[in-house]
Write a structure and sequence with these properties.
homodimer, alpha/beta, Rossmann fold, six-stranded parallel sheet, 6 helices, 6 strands
């Protein structure tokens, strides 16, 4: 299959860079095609601004969604953005790899999302009616493709555990996994997270490498996070609230949107 | 008092820009000093890279935390970063204002955090021992200052409610409120969130303006989010897990870190 890795670390000679090499080699050994968008090497423009919409008159007020919609429809987005959109369409699986900075992705990767996820491409897709609220959350342009995060963190696993002070890692990553990957239709695999990466010795790297190789070998078979699809009947339209009693007793917050055993 | 507003919208002639004007006027009417960091107008560099650490030899491997630590200690960070750090030290209250893009801040504001929050300034502060794990989460450089978010969203309030498909707004903003504001010591006020901003008419703007004026009038008196301080005894050290039975029955995830009635 075709795998796109979007890589967002400022230093290629880093643990992240080494893990990228390990993952790429393993994917190629399995016969997959791999493309890497190394955002720092590409000098990726991180900021959405007027220059992203070349056909917008210079003195016209910038409304991002409508400008994005018009330029996407007319093929007028900038070449760097169109190139990344083409890679997304080419890929069967997309991996976002980044160091966790301030509990989310670095700015350069957020800027990749902000710019590449055009209106009509990643949002604003599909019809709104009393039975559908657009093609999103499990439907959309990326439907049928898989995606996952590869994340490195300086903190300890305990700090990101159920009672850890940083918050549970799955909750910290929910806005990305659910809001950025599931939203335009990706099937989302559990994240690969490496902790205490500033203290990693050679033995630790060997173990980590084997873990990421195993994840690369099982991309097609790993069970995804069972997020609820928006238009399959679990949500009220148009309030988009989860209907009563679908969740496990006691489930609240983000976990409502993951299908569990129905006991209600 | 001194108020810093960090503003991250690409169009000054936007609802966000209008709310910025309303907030600024109200603060000045109350006798406060206001500074605005309009990141787009400043052409803020969003990406952390080698150029942020001028004393780092060009061929040396970039380790962000150690480079940041050394340059901060030696006064060698770039002038734009030092300017923002000076504004933070000047301010009694800091407001981050932005449109919610993909369930978090735009890249340009994330890049402000990534670059301005140097090691030794916003993290890597204080001693580690069996009683303290650095000055963070309620202690640190920003201790004694207040902070809050002003956020605009296109979606409906229901979509961000307790059972809404996007996830509860307070959980989506937790990584910012707790991980970016509380972490270096700010006292964090509840966020101001405006919904359905693409459909706002004049009457709606009048109501919204009055709401933000009221929040600006009560900056000093609004009750903060009662996040638990890290070093006050609620957490095990060094695993930084919340000690048993401190939370309300049934509380999980991010909500563990907000002090409630102790019923355990």
């Amino acid at each position: 299959m075709n795998v796109l890795i979007v890589f967002a670390h400022p230093e290629r000679r880093s643990l992240n860079g080494a893990l990228l090499d390990v993952a790429t080699a393993e994917l190629q050994a399995q016969g997959h095609e791999v493309k890497v968008s190394d955002l720092y090497a590409m000098h990726w423009k991180a900021t959405v601004d007027q220059a992203d919409f070349p056909d917008l008159p210079a003195d016209e007020r910038l409304k991002v969604a409508s400008a994005s919609s018009r330029e996407f429809a007319e093929g007028g987005l900038t070449e760097d953005v169109k190139g990344e959109q083409a890679k997304l369409l080419w890929a069967d699986t997309v991996i976002l790899q980044f160091p966790l900075w301030w509990f989310t992705m670095p700015a350069i990767l957020k800027g990749w999302v902000d710019r590449v996820y055009a209106y009509g491409f990643a949002y604003g897709v599909g019809e709104h009616s009393d039975r559908r609220w657009g093609d999103r959350y499990g439907e959309g342009t990326m439907a049928g493709k898989r995606a996952m995060l590869v994340v490195t963190a300086g903190g300890w696993p305990e700090h990101y555990s159920a009672r850890g002070i940083n918050g549970p890692i799955d909750d910290l990553l929910f806005p990305i996994n659910h809001g950025i990957l599931f939203y335009p239709g990706f099937t989302v695999l559990p994240s690969f997270v490496a902790y205490q990466v500033d203290r990693l010795d050679e033995a630790g790297f060997t173990i980590l490498s084997e873990h990421i190789r195993e994840r690369m070998r099982t991309l097609a078979t790993t069970a995804p996070i069972p997020y609820r699809k928006q238009n399959d009947g679990d949500y009220q339209i148009p309030t988009m609230e989860l209907k009563p009693k679908l969740e496990k007793p006691g489930a609240v917050g983000f976990s409502l949107h993951i299908a569990g055993e129905k006991t209600g």
